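Example record

The entry below shows one chain as it appears in the dataset: sequence first, then structure tokens.
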Amino acid sequence: MNLLLLSNSTQYGRGYLEHALDTVTAFLPANARLAFVPYALADHTTYTARVREALEPSGITVRGVHENPDPVAELAASDAVFIGGGNSFRLLDALYRTGLREAVRDAVRGGLPYMGASAGTNMAAPTLRTSNDMPIVQPPSFEALGLVPFQINPHYLDPDPASTHKGETREERLTEFLEENDVPVLGLREGSWLRVDGDRAHVRGARPARLFSRTAAPRELAPDSDVSRLLTTEPRFDAPAR
């Protein structure tokens, strides 16, 4: 498979996708017709226009799947697919309702380039269980696309040592997940992404990632780290630690 999984699509002080634009345009086929899936936000038209504004100057034609009465047909007519960020539960629910969950999964496994950002990156994992989002709707299942066999946590945040906030840290929440599930979780900080090309996977971007697993202490992964071994993961969900 050919995947570009971004932690974020917006970076402070920069335009939409600007921080990763060279990577995005190099990833997408030249003069691609891109199927954009805007379902993570309520206003599909405005969201699609934002993606067009960012990518069409690079020769990429952006088509929102909602603009076609048959979203699956729009996907089939495209050279690549981009699932944008927003609320992961709303997004997954829409993928189930439109038939795009199975269609995207099968097309990407067949070679269609897949780009995700934030919620779109969550979709590439087996389930939504490591999403940061509030479940504002109830999808039929937490089962996502499963394009990679491990979990990803976009927007991973480190604890602020100067903060007096006493709530759970992101690391504590992921540790709780691992108490009930034996599946590695790759935390992607803002400005970082995961690139998968066939049986190879690398952390890319400006910042290191953080890898969590049940059997080892959290580990920092510098940009350009090879994480291909994660593609051989055999996930075990609902497997409480004994």
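Notes for this example: The longest helix spans residues 44-55. Residues 2-149+190-207 form a domain with the Rossmann fold fold (CATH 3.40.50.880).
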